[in-house]
Amino acid sequence: MTRSRSQAPYSGWITFLAHLFFVLAAWSVFIKYVFPIAFALFTDEAWTTHIFWDLWPIAHVWLGWALLIQPWYTRWLAVSMSVVEIVIILTLFTIFLAEPDWTIWRTNWFVNKVFVLSAFTLILATVVVKPELFRTRSS
């Protein structure tokens, strides 16, 4: 499949990464919201007891969409979001692993972050190794 001249070349790898971020967003919503809320309701706890609040799943959907559609800012978004996420996760891992708390909630959080870190490392590596797969302002 060939894209028009104004778009980046078609890449199955970019399509894979986009879908990875859609799955990652769904997984994060389940791990951070659905499972903790269901557990709390079944154990007669406040529904907010075990939730790790953040809006990163929305950002992950945005990045997945951008990878598929390739607006002019895709490379900038991929790099900036990857760097921010990687720095945040590595900082959180450093703090957590200094005094780990392996409850089911923190373990779920940790596993989720490992997948998020892996996905953003793949994005950053792709930008470095194959920057032509990302549309830029001049494309």
Polypeptide structure, described:
The chain has helices at about 10-40, 55-70, 75-100, 105-130. The protein is an all-alpha fold and about 140 residues long. The longest helix has about 30 residues, at about 10-40.
Helix content, binned percent: 55-70%
Pick out the low-confidence regions. Answer: 1-5
Helix tally equals: 4
Q: Classify the beta-strand content into a percent band.
A: under 5%
Radius of gyration: 17 Å
In total, the number of strands is 0
Helix-strand string = HHHH
The average pLDDT value, as a whole number, equals 90
Instruction: Using the alpha-carbon principal axes, give the shape.
Output: elongated
Q: Structural class of the helix and strand makeup? A: mainly alpha
| Most strands sheet | none
Distance between the termini: 18 Å
List keywords for this structure.
single chain; 69% helix; elongated; 139 residues; 4 helices; mainly alpha
Can you describe this structure in just a few lines?
With 139 residues, the protein is mostly helical. It is 69% helix and 0% strand. Helix 1 packs antiparallel against helix 2 (56-69) and helix 1 (12-42) runs antiparallel to helix 4 (104-129).
Write the layout of secondary structure elements.
Blueprint: H1 12-42, H2 56-69, H3 74-98, H4 104-129
Helix pairs in contact: 1-2, 1-4, 2-3, 3-4
